[in-house]
Amino acid sequence: MPKNGDQQFCVIGLGAYGSSLAKSLSRLGAYVLAVDHDLEKVEAIQQFVSEAVQFDGTDPAMLAEHGVFNADVVIVGIGEAFEPVVLICMELLKAGVKRIIARAGSDTQEAILNRIGINEVIHPEKDEGERMAAQLIHISVNDYFELSKDIAIYEIDAPKDMHGYSLADLKLRQRYNVNLLTIKRIKKSDVEVEGMPNKEAEILGVLEPSTKIRPNDRLVVMGRHDNINKLIDMN
Length: 235
Description:
- This protein is α/β, with parallel strands linked by helices.
- The protein has two domains: 8-122, NAD(P)-binding Rossmann-like Domain (Rossmann fold, 3-Layer(aba) Sandwich); 127-233, Alpha-Beta Plaits, CATH 3.30.70.
- The chain is 34% helix and 30% strand.
- The chain has nine helices and eleven strands.
- It has helices at 16-27, 39-45, 60-65, 83-95, 107-116, 124-137, 167-170, 172-176, 225-233, and strands at 8-12, 31-36, 51-54, 73-76, 99-103, 120-122, 141-146, 151-157, 179-193, 196-203, 218-224.
- A six-stranded parallel β-sheet has the order 3-2-1-4-5-6, sandwiched between helices. Strands 7-8-11-9-10 form a five-stranded antiparallel β-sheet.
- Helix 2 links the parallel strand 2 (31-36) and strand 3.
- It is globular, with a radius of gyration of 19 Å.
């Protein structure tokens, strides 16, 4: 897994949840290594991620060979069986992986993961309900992806009070303790479809301190729910 200065993600287990997460992270500009023992699932996702590899994730030699231990964040999203999740997590812990997020299908499974040292545990079915709730309650939320109980990635409308200010002026990290990953900038086309303006979003990628927030910008931010909600409440 190559290093380019940005966070490197590895998603192990490419079921509905894992593949959705891997694609979402890739769309946000992250380097993503996708892993599954099923070659068909690997082939289905390879065009959407940085790298997709087929191997048994419980094999420590293969994890090391493909650079999984070097990833900044490894998400073990296997949902079919719980034993592989535990075995993989134990290998990741032994290798000293910086951040491990694991999937659990029940509170009992979460307790087991906590016992072996995994503190960030996800319940995809429950998280999806929370995602919908966030979108229903906060009309400024365009998209939402739960990474753990406390941390998520949100796509929100840029608050009006930020329009015209640069990132250096706003100091979002210092003031709100959130990370601005990128900006989706709406392009207003002169072409109309059935009387409605055609709007396309451009992902700005790596942001400069001089980048200014414009009206209609969408901010892709990562952080704790309570901190991001402070931004949302500005709308």
